[in-house]
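Before a colleague's protein record goes any further, I have to sign it off. My question to you is simply how this chain folds and whether the tokens agree. I do not need a full report, just your reasoning and any doubts. This is what I was given:
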Amino acid sequence: MHEWFGATGGSENVFLSLCKVLPEAKGFVLWRDRDARRGLDLHESWLARTPFRRAKAAALPLMPVTWRTLTRERFDVVISSSHAFAHTVKLPSAPQARYLSYVHSPARYLWSPDHDGRGSNGLLALPRAVLRAADVRLSRHVDSYAANSREVRNRIRRFWKRDARIIHPPVDVDYFRAAPDQQRRQDRDYLLGVGRWIPYKKFDLMIEIADAAGLPLVVAGSGPEEEALRRRAALARVPVTFEVRPTRNRLRELYWGASCLLFPTHEDFGIIPVEAMACGTPVLGLRRGGVLETVVDGETGFLVDSDDPRAYAALLHQADDLDRDRIQGHADVFSASVFREKIAVWVTDETS
């Protein structure tokens, strides 16, 4: 089970990897976007046939009941890939099933509205409280949780009063380790920011860091903040280049050509820093969340306890001295093969 299946991102990639580990399992989603990956045999819920598929916020109150009425089929094991309410799935036709849930995060707009502005409106306080209570009450049957990071495991303990094992998301380190060409490896003449262009990712701060360091910046991704970021970039004293929706191959080239990845954001895990490290590119990040588990401070990058662009800029010359082979080797800890092994052990432990 997975929430909604959109253009493939971090949670979708985890779901796809789960499908590879358990190829004979049946896949269900609330809905799939029109431009989502084709060729997947995914069964959609009744929400897919309504306007709610285009309004996630409006669909939230309907998700718990949808997960309870998804199918009449019987299953021995039900595994959810959850960042909203998928972990509450319970099939009336399968009362004796084992329910396992891989959690990307408890819904941030419910439990961490200070971190995710979608739930921060004061008028939403009452609906948020009701949905929080439902989130806890409807998930008591879950037999085992797996969290994608220590950060998320701590949230599960704090919000749901449950424990979880940690299984980091799979990263295709083998693909990113392969240099596009040797010349790219020698360039490393710009800073790089990668991700969705939304406020909490702090791409505006990345522009300020590049400005303070006097180094060019490449911003790769897409999102609703594009216009605002382009206006901010026009005021910068350094070149800022936008790469809109780069292909996977182009993204690898950008990682290999960068002197450092800027990641001044608080993420649950953060696959992008691991992809960069697989290319031998050091990470300059905020000392919060998932990078505490992925970046070895002083060895594969540097972590900063500040939003001051000068604090980041001051470390960039040290990043040039880091051992890029050591950086690449560290990324192996988060490979897809390690993920598959840990998922297999989890499922076996919880269903044997």
Residues 336-351 form the longest helix (16 residues). The two ends are 21 Å apart (CA to CA). The chain has 17 helices and 13 strands.
